[in-house]
């Protein structure tokens, strides 16, 4: 999106050199050389998929995962040459588009695979195997039936991969570790049976899986690419840090007196003289309304607590004692002076995950790319 400093209201800065750095650091800490499939679904976790894919392709990434056909077409049409795998559902009517844009489709179930077969097109596919997530894939518990299905599709379609998805790889407690190891074991029990087919892409690791359970040969790397944690309690390898900064501007500053209230519902009561700044970012920008009266922004290196309810397009913050004025920069996510706000911490405050915070930043917030 075009970035015009004259109309700066609320915007994101995407640091592509940090993104590439995260990719290299992650790869380096794995015990063996692996292939990385970059997970760029949901507009690269809100970072802007085209810029992210181009930077990664330049850095040597040859494989991209998206969630749907529109995302796949967007990056393909913008010149991404690598393989593109759709991890989720695509309506069968779109099969022609898969062929046309050279996109690989996940086979979600036997029923879905039959429908793909019936299209009569020899589509590139990867088969999902369910080892315990109960989301998509054929059931890993019946190894013989899995083998039969894989052999059949290997004959009738262009079957280029088999994968499963780990559901608690980010949790480091004993029960979760046992569960994850069992998922990996179930997956390998099946892939070993069909080794002779030499299916090129056999993968079961997400960011956390690769970090805690070794890479296998391929990692589908999502959240850590963007410098965020799969789980707030995980420690990331040294040097990996967030790629995205979210900024806004001070629209006005005013003084308020004891007895006044701030914003909708009069949810903040002024009990001492205060200075309040109005920031032109609100929940329509994806700034979570449940942070009302709870969280803070950073202005000129100082914490400025949110006062009252976050509005659709604005919020008010306490800048009492902070040197600031209209048009000063406000950091919503990122660093300013010695202060830092991460999407992960912000998420923890409201009982969610960093993934949801960054994916939730609205499309009306322009993404500005820093190289
Ligand atoms: C989203 C997703 C990933 C990436 O997960 P991260 O935790 O972001 O690394 C990998 N595989 C599948 C199937 C996914 O849906």
Short description:
This protein has 371 residues and is an alpha/beta fold. 29% of the residues lie in helices and 25% in strands. The relative contact order is 0.14.
Question: What does the model show?
Answer:
This protein is α/β, with parallel strands linked by helices. 29% of the residues lie in helices and 25% in strands. The protein has 11 helices and 21 strands. It has helices at 16-28, 41-45, 49-58, 69-77, 95-100, 110-118, 143-156, 174-193, 207-213, 343-349, 354-359, and strands at residues 10-15, 35-39, 63-66, 83-86, 104-107, 124-130, 138-139, 158-163, 201-203, 218-221, 244-249, 252-256, 261-262, 268-269, 274-279, 296-299, 302-305, 315-318, 329-336, 339-341, 367-370. Strands 2, 3, 4, 5, 6, 7, 8, 9 and 10 form a 9-stranded parallel β-sheet that branches. Strands 1, 11, 16, 17, 19, 20 and 21 form a 7-stranded mixed β-sheet that branches. Strand 16 and strand 17 form a beta hairpin. Helix 7 (143-156) crosses helix 8 (174-193). The longest helix has 20 residues, at 174-193. The chain is elongated. Bound molecules: pyridoxal-5'-phosphate. Pyridoxal-5'-phosphate (PLP) binds next to helix 9 and strand 10.
């Amino acid at each position: 999106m075009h970035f015009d400093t004259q109309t700066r209201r609320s915007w994101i800065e995407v640091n592509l050199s940090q993104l590439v750095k995260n990719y290299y650091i992650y790869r380096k800490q794995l015990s063996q050389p692996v292939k990385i499939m970059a997970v760029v679904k949901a507009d690269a976790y809100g970072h802007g998929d085209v810029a992210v894919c181009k930077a990664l392709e330049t850095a040597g990434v040859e494989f991209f995962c998206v969630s749907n056909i529109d995302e796949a077409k967007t990056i393909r049409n913008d010149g991404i040459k690598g393989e593109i795998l759709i991890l989720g559902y695509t309506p069968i009517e779109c099969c022609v588009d898969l062929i046309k844009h050279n996109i690989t489709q996940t086979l979600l179930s036997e029923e879905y695979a039959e429908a793909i077969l019936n299209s009569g097109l020899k589509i590139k596919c990867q088969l999902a195997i369910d080892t315990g997530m109960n989301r998509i894939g054929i059931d890993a518990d019946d190894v013989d039936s899995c083998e039969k299905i894989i052999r059949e599709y290997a004959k009738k379609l262009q079957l280029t991969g088999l994968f499963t998805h780990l559901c608690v790889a980010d949790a480091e407690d004993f029960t979760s570790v046992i569960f994850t190891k069992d998922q990996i074991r179930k997956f390998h029990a099946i892939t070993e049976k069909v080794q002779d087919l030499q299916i090129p892409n056999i993968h079961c690791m997400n960011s956390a899986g690769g970090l805690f359970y070794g890479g296998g040969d391929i990692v589908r790397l999502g959240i850590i690419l963007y410098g965020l944690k799969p789980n707030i309690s995980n420690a990331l390898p040294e040097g990996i840090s967030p790629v995205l900064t979210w900024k806004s501007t001070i629209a006005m500053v005013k003084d308020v007196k004891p007895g006044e209230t701030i914003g909708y519902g009069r949810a903040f009561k002024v009990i001492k003289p205060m200075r309040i700044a109005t920031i032109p970012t609100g929940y329509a920008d994806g700034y979570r309304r449940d942070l009302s009266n709870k969280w803070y922004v950073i202005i000129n290196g100082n914490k400025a607590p949110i006062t009252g309810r976050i509005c659709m397009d604005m919020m008010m913050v306490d800048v009492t004692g902070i040197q600031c004025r209209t048009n000063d920069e406000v950091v919503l996510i990122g660093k300013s002076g010695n202060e830092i706000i991460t999407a992960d911490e912000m998420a923890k405050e409201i009982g969610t995950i960093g993934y949801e915070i960054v994916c939730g930043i609205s499309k009306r917030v322009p993404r500005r790319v820093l190289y």
